[in-house]
Amino acid sequence: MCSDVRWKLCWENELQLADHVELSDFFRKTYGPTGLFNAKPFEGSRSWAGARPELRAIGYDQSGVAAHMGLLRRFIKVGTVDLLVAELGLDGVRADLERLGISHSIRVMLPTLHELGVPFAFGTVRQALRKHIERFGRHGPVTILSDILTRSTLPEPRRDKPPTCIDEALVIVLPVGRLIGDRHHQYRNGSPRRAA
Length: 196
Hints:
It is a single chain. The chain is globular. The protein has four helices and eight strands; from the N terminus they run βααβββαβαβββ. It is an alpha+beta fold. The model is unreliable at 183-191 (pLDDT under 50). Strand 4 (81-93), helix 3 and strand 5 form a beta-alpha-beta unit. The longest helix has 15 residues, at 17-31.
């Protein structure tokens, strides 16, 4: 049951080795069914995939880690404008708790987003999750944008690939300190590029 989950907000430097081991196991089990490659970043005790989060919302129940969402402040370029956002990612829910989705994680994270003073929270998800994200968007002030190209730096440079990749993902924007249409910050006028 969702009511049995206890949420903990913690900064990355507060995590102990045992926390990373437990989280890496959680991510392997959560992302593994979507493809072996998706579980690979979490081998050993590594509890992050690309950029390492600054802050984590971790849900626990009697079976251990139930859900997770990470946050990292960064600048993204939207058209010609550099915009500070809180990038949300590493969202995961244990298979037996499917109803405990992204909306619960964001509700837990929202007061901290306000404290951090970021104008927006930002995230990207695969097109395959469109229906799930659209259901979530009906219950909150979330804007979901499609047909947006995002360019980001690969986590590790490789000789056989270019240093950046371009994805066409669903872009999720959650207003925190500013409305999406304010001033020059119209996401539809440019392609978000993560400054990673």
